[in-house]
Every structure is written in structure tokens, then in C-alpha cells.
Design goal:
Length: 559
């Protein structure tokens, strides 16, 4: 009985085990290869076959044969399935030569990223990668741009009947070799050069590259110098106060940089086509310089025009009744900063897309480790905070262009709201650069926020026996006859404090705006001091207006 139960249990467990074994080892063709009848049937047999067992050995054998100019052997590394058999022997070596030129001139090979296993399993990536640990039969090594589209340079694992699988440059890539060679192959000028100049000098550089690179740089620098001198001559012929002069001054250096980068790019494209090692370094630098120059030109022109428009209307903006203009130019300043951020972001995207920097080895390592994000966040933290603060000031209208503010003990007018600082003009034409964060996190006085009129006051230290009523009468006569006082009935004379030797008398009057208030304050002080001097010398009363302590000190110094 027990034996029967054990037999039934073993049979029950054996059925799913057999099914699982059948799934793991299916019968039929190998799943990770492209099966064909014959491989490169039209090529002549090689005395020493290439090592095509792994992706890495394929590239090594292909490049070694190419650099030795053994084009017949190098052709064996191509999948010539799309080439008619009768033409493979003639076209294969030429396609191999062009493929070698393309690789040499367009890419820098990172051998660490090319698998050295027949199944091309990627053992270097993390377990979270999509193809980590998976065999592959098709690998895109590089992406090259030509004719306004991207071409992939691929290798594929192919198996012919009765043969072992081999890795070849894929048939799709072989079809694209003519188009890629048109873009990355030697220019007509290079083909005219003598053979010794086209020979390899060191690294991946030919002798003509060693000679041409500094010459191209010098030529671009010369054209840039001519541009710089031309713009300087135009500036000298213009009025320094005009808009054209301001625009020329703003674009002087950016335009020179753009001409330098553009000249260098045109010479490279039209005359020389440098190898992959040089191009890998020059292409991102060239694109970055050119885009940065164009962005600088656009932003400086916008900034100059906006600044010229606001500065030409300084008096109008400072007019207390012109609140709409202050609101308009303040919002325009905020919009200019938003446009600046947008243009910079678009430019950064263009550089990233055109240089393909996101696919470089160093960038990928930094991004995967999270280091790049930390660096960018740390570097941009203060800048983004200042940007948001400046936009907050503009739209909350806490300080507008043309507003009179009292900040840091200084009476100023807001001239400009920038990304990081506000430019303030003091009453004596000095310029203060105030951080935008201070105007968001700290208190300040805005004297033209709602009502531009300002109650001005003058405080004088007078003797306790001073006749305040006589001063009040004198002050009242003054405010009734002064055109700068808005309301004579609102003017007051008050004793606001006293000490052991003197009392503090305050004279109050309202002016229509801060500028008029400052001038009124000076007139009040001058008038009251003159009146006190006259009262003390008139003989009608003892000279008790000025503090006694001061009178004694003056008497001792003159006695």
C-alpha cells in the first residue's frame, strides 16, 4: 500500500518537472542568432579567417585588417546579404574601406562597453538595467547623424547552415555606409593632399590634422579679430547716448565669439573633416560656444532695449502720478527675466541634443550615481532662489521701477530689478546694489507704494526755556507761503522729547512726493534756524533758544 502511494506521488511530481525542463530547453533553432543560408558567398576564401566569435573580437579583427589596408580581409566582417553575390568581391573591400574611415573619423571606441562574450551578455550594467544578463543578437554601438537623420552603427550575430554563429557588421549598417561616408569621409581637399600628410602621426591623428588644427584656429581667431575691430569702428561712429550704440556695445563680445565659432565650423565642414578623437572634443565645444554666443546676443539686445526704454523715461517713472508706467516697466522687467530663463533652457536643450552629451560615459556614471543631480541642485539653489525672489518682487509690486524706497538708511529710487540684485539710485546719484533676497526677507520702506505724498519733519534740540509758541507762529507763516507744502493746516510744531539739557522740537509738513519733501525739509530747517538767530539777537527776549550747554561751550571758546 505504501509503495503504491509513493509511486503515485513520484509520478505526480515528475509531470510538472518534465514540462519545466521542456520549456527551458526547447527543441528547434538557436534563439539568439539570425539564421541564413550562406554568409558572404561571393567573397574569396581567406587564408587566415577573422576572429568573429564575440563583438569585441569582431571590431578588433576588422580594425586591424583595415589599418593594414587588407580590404579583402576586412570585407569578411561585413554582412553583405543585400549586395548581389556577383558584386560582393568587388564592392565588399570598398565598403570595408569606407566603414573603416567612418569609424576612424566619427567615434571614439570605449572598449569597456563592447561585450567580449559570444552571447553578448552585458555583465557591466546593474541588475536593474532592462537587458542585464540577457543574451543579445543585435547591438547598436553608435548613432551617427547624416542627412538630417540618425543612423545606427550595428553589429549582429549571424549563423549559416552547418556553421558556428559569428558577429558581423549588420546588413542595415552596410546599406547606410555610402550615406555615412558622404558625411564623415574625407573632403575633396583632403584627397588632394600628399600621401605622407594622410599617414597616421600619433594617437588617431594624421599628419595633416596635426598641421591643420592650429591653422584653422588661427584663421578663426583672425576673422574674429576683424569682426571685433569692425564693431568697434561702428560704435565710435555712433552717439554714445543712442540705442544703436548701446546695442553694438552689448553684442560686441558675443558677436565676436559667434563669428569665431561659426568660422571654425564652416572651415571644418567645408575643407577638413577631423578624426573621431578630435571631433569628439571639438564638436561639443564648437556647438556650446556658438549657442552661447547666439543666446548672449539675443539676451543682451533685449536687455539693452528694455534698459534704454526705462532710462529714457526716468523722470516720467519717478513722477508720483505715473503709477501705471511704473507697473508696466516692472512687469516688463519680470517678463524679460522669464524670457531669459526660457532662452537659456532651450539653449541648454539644444546643446544636450546636438552634442549627445547624455550618452557619454562620464555623464552616465555621474547621473547613475546621483552626483550630477546633487551638483546641479547645489549650484542652482541660490540662483533659482534669487530668480524667484526677483519675480516675486515684480508681481507682488513691493518695489517697482521708479519707486522711492528707504533701505539701509538710504533714500533711493529703484532703477533696475535684476536676477540677483536691485540697482538703487541715491539722492546724490550713487548706485546701491541690494540683494533681491533682502527685499523679500527684510523690511524696507516704499514711499510711493500707495500715496506718493510724504510727511517731512525737522527735529531741533532747543533750550527748555525756548518760546515754542513764537516758533509755531513763525512756522505757520512759513508753510502758508511755501508752494511745496500741500496743506498748511496739517503742519504742526510738537515737542516730542526732552533731556537734561534740551528738548526736542519737531516741525511737520506734508510734501507731494519724496523729492519735494527733501527740498521742503531743507527749507524748513534753514528758515527756522534763521528765525531763531534773529529772535536771539533782537533783544526782545533772552537768548534761550539754543541749549544752555552749547552756549557755555561757545562762550568758553570765544572768551
Amino acid at each position: 500500500m505504501h509503495r503504491t502511494l509513493l509511486s503515485l506521488l513520484a509520478l505526480f511530481l515528475a509531470v510538472p518537472l518534465a514540462a519545466q525542463t521542456s520549456q527551458e530547453s526547447p527543441a528547434g533553432p538557436e534563439p539568439h542568432v539570425y539564421e541564413v543560408d550562406r554568409i558572404n558567398q561571393g567573397l574569396a576564401p581567406l587564408g587566415e579567417p577573422l576572429d568573429l566569435e564575440t563583438p569585441q573580437s569582431l571590431l578588433e579583427s576588422f580594425l586591424d585588417a583595415g589599418f593594414a589596408q587588407e580590404w579583402d580581409r576586412a570585407a569578411a566582417a561585413l554582412d553583405l546579404s543585400e549586395v548581389p553575390v556577383g558584386r560582393q568581391a568587388a564592392e565588399g573591400p570598398e565598403l570595408a574601406r569606407k566603414a573603416i574611415e567612418i569609424v576612424h573619423r566619427s567615434v571614439v571606441i570605449d572598449w569597456r562597453q563592447i561585450p567580449d562574450r559570444p552571447d553578448a551578455v552585458d555583465v557591466s550594467s546593474t541588475a536593474e538595467a532592462p537587458l542585464s544578463g540577457e543574451p543579445r543578437r543585435n547591438i547598436a554601438l553608435w548613432y551617427l547623424r547624416a542627412e538630417d537623420r540618425d543612423y545606427s552603427f550595428r553589429i549582429a550575430r549571424v549563423k549559416a547552415d552547418g556553421s558556428d554563429p559569428v558577429w558581423l557588421i549588420s546588413r542595415q549598417t552596410v546599406e547606410n555606409i555610402p550615406a555615412l561616408y558622404e558625411r564623415y569621409g574625407p573632403t575633396p581637399f583632403e584627397e588632394m593632399l600628399p600621401a605622407p600628410l594622410r599617414a597616421q602621426a600619433f594617437w588617431t591623428l594624421a599628419w595633416w590634422e596635426v598641421v591643420a588644427l592650429p591653422l584653422v584656429l588661427l584663421f578663426a581667431v583672425g576673422i574674429a579679430n576683424l569682426t571685433y575691430a569692425g564693431i568697434r569702428a561702428l560704435r565710435r561712429s555712433r552717439d554714445e547716448e543712442g540705442l544703436v550704440y548701446g546695442v553694438l556695445r552689448a553684442v560686441h563680445l558675443p558677436a565676436t565669439l559667434a563669428v569665431f565659432a561659426g568660422t571654425f565650423a564652416l572651415v571644418r565642414l567645408g575643407v577638413f573633416n577631423f578624426s573621431g578623437a578630435v571631433s569628439t572634443f571639438l564638436d561639443p565645444l564648437q556647438i556650446t560656444l556658438f549657442v552661447a554666443a547666439i543666446v548672449a546676443i539675443v539676451l543682451t539686445v533685449i536687455d539693452t532695449i528694455a534698459q534704454f526704454a526705462s532710462e529714457s523715461r526716468t523722470e516720467e517713472l519717478e513722477d508720483p502720478d505715473n503709477e501705471e508706467s511704473r507697473d508696466y516697466f516692472t512687469k516688463l522687467s519680470a517678463a524679460r527675466r522669464l524670457v531669459t530663463v526660457f532662452v537659456v533652457m532651450v539653449a541648454a536643450g539644444v546643446v544636450l541634443l546636438q552634442t549627445d552629451i547624455a550618452n557619454t560615459l562620464g555623464f552616465s556614471l555621474l547621473a547613475s550615481a546621483g552626483v550630477l543631480g546633487l551638483i546641479i541642485v547645489f549650484a542652482a539653489r541660490q540662483a533659482l532662489g534669487d530668480l524667484m525672489a526677483s519675480i516675486q518682487i515684480a508681481f507682488a509690486k513691493t518695489a517697482r521701477i521708479g519707486d522711492a524706497v528707504h533701505w539701509g538708511g538710504q533714500w533711493c529710487y529703484v532703477e533696475r530689478i535684476g536676477f540677483t540684485h536691485l540697482r538703487l539710485r541715491t539722492w546724490d546719484e550713487r548706485r546701491l546694489m541690494a540683494p533681491v533676497s533682502a527685499f523679500v526677507n527684510e523690511s524696507f520702506e516704499n514711499w510711493t507704494k500707495t500715496d506718493p505724498s510724504l510727511m517731512t519733519h525737522v527735529e531741533l534740540m532747543l533750550d527748555h526755556r525756548a518760546d515754542v509758541d513764537r516758533l509755531r507762529e513763525e512756522f505757520q507763516r512759513f508753510v502758508e507761503n511755501d508752494d511745496g507744502v500741500m496743506d498748511a493746516e496739517e503742519a504742526k510744531v510738537q515737542v516730542v522729547d526732552h533731556g537734561s539739557s534740551a528738548m526736542t522740537v519737531r516741525f511737520l509738513a506734508r510734501a507731494r512726493d519724496p523729492k519735494a519733501g527733501w527740498r521742503l525739509q531743507c527749507r524748513v530747517r534753514e528758515h527756522i534756524l534763521a528765525a531763531i538767530a534773529e529772535m536771539e539777537t533782537s533783544g526782545e527776549s533772552p537768548p534761550v533758544f539754543l541749549p544752555r550747554e552749547r552756549e557755555v561751550q561757545v562762550a568758553e571758546q570765544t572768551g
